[in-house]
């Protein structure tokens, strides 16, 4: 049985501390060896780098530049009028990833109307090809994540698990894999056991939280995480598992679920 490598999501955990840079040490003090985050771009890169290095944790994932979050954007890779911006901002993502010695980048698609046309499909696939090539030169893995549009992100372009797999299979790029979030997969498709086993060869990162309220894995909800963790331990998955949940109360108190479920940091 393999030991699971749990990564604290610093965008959602330890939020009593205002800055990501402060949360690296908090994660370390809580026992974490691995961290991830969504968007580090609002904080000074040198400050983040120093804080990460001081904490001694391994930072395993960041998201690509999301666009204008205030106006509702969440990724630009599928936007036909943002091709140049996508490529320019990918360089900023790479700069942050290298400063944090981070080897995985989630390439965010975009929020769009529910229909799509050939221009959107072409833009997204071209940008994925470009990003996978560019990131490979920096020894950084590119990931795409299907995100549910039913509950979490209405109008998100990549909201189908099987469509996401199709992109990965058709591009067939050695540096492009899936980010498999059990929360989103349950809402989009269910069938967690079969989907995980079928998708395992294509998975480059995993995230977890309870459904539907996105709390700790031991809170009431639809997913039996005791079963999920046993399945993960018996699989050949050797990557990281991001704890991308909203703590019901204090982050530190809520971490008791790890020991309760027979896991360790």
TrEMBL record:
Enzyme class: isomerase
Signal peptide bounds: none
The protein's Enzyme Commission number: 5.3.1.22
UniProt-annotated catalytic positions: 145, 244
Protein's GO biological process: glyoxylate metabolic process
Record key words, sorted: Isomerase
Domain Xylose isomerase-like TIM barrel: from-to ranges: 25-260
Pfam families, alphabetized: AP_endonuc_2 (PF01261)
Molecular function GO labels: hydroxypyruvate isomerase activity
InterPro entries: HyI-like, Sugar_Epim/Isomerase, Xyl_isomerase-like_sf, Xyl_isomerase-like_TIM-brl
The organism's place on the tree of life at top rank: Eukaryota
Catalyses which reaction(s): 3-hydroxypyruvate = 2-hydroxy-3-oxopropanoate
Family (UniProt): Belongs to the hyi family.
Function: Catalyzes the reversible isomerization between hydroxypyruvate and 2-hydroxy-3-oxopropanoate (also termed tartronate semialdehyde).
Name of the protein in its database record: Putative hydroxypyruvate isomerase
Taxonomic lineage of the native organism: Eukaryota, Metazoa, Spiralia, Lophotrochozoa, Mollusca
Gene that encodes the chain: LOC115215071
């Amino acid at each position: 049985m393999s030991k699971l490598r749990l990564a604290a999501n610093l965008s959602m955990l330890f939020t009593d501390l205002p800055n990501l840079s402060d949360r690296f040490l908090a994660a370390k003090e809580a026992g974490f060896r691995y961290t991830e985050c969504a968007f580090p771009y609002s904080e000074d890169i040198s400050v983040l780098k120093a804080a990460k290095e001081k904490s001694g944790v391994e930072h395993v994932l960041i998201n690509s530049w999301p666009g204008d979050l205030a106006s509702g954007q969440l990724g630009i890779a599928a936007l036909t009028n943002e091709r140049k911006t996508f490529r320019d901002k990918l360089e900023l993502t790479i700069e942050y990833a290298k400063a944090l010695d981070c080897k995985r980048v989630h390439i965010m698609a975009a929020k769009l109307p529910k229909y799509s046309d050939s221009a959107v499909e072409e833009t997204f696939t071209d940008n994925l090809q470009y990003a996978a090539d560019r990131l490979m030169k920096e020894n950084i893995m590119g990931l795409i994540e299907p995100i549910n549009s039913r509950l979490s992100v209405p109008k998100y372009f990549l909201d189908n698990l099987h469509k996401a797999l199709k992109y990965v299979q058709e591009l067939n790029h050695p540096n492009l894999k899936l980010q498999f979030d059990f929360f989103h997969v349950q809402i989009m498709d269910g069938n967690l056991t079969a989907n995980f086993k079928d998708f395992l060869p294509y998975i480059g990162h995993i995230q977890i939280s309870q459904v539907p309220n996105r709390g700790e894995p031991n809170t009431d909800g639809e997913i039996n995480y005791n079963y999920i963790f046993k399945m993960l331990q018996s699989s050949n998955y050797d990557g990281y598992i991001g704890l991308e949940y909203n703590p019901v109360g204090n982050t530190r108190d809520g971490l008791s679920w790890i020991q309760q479920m027979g896991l360790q940091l």
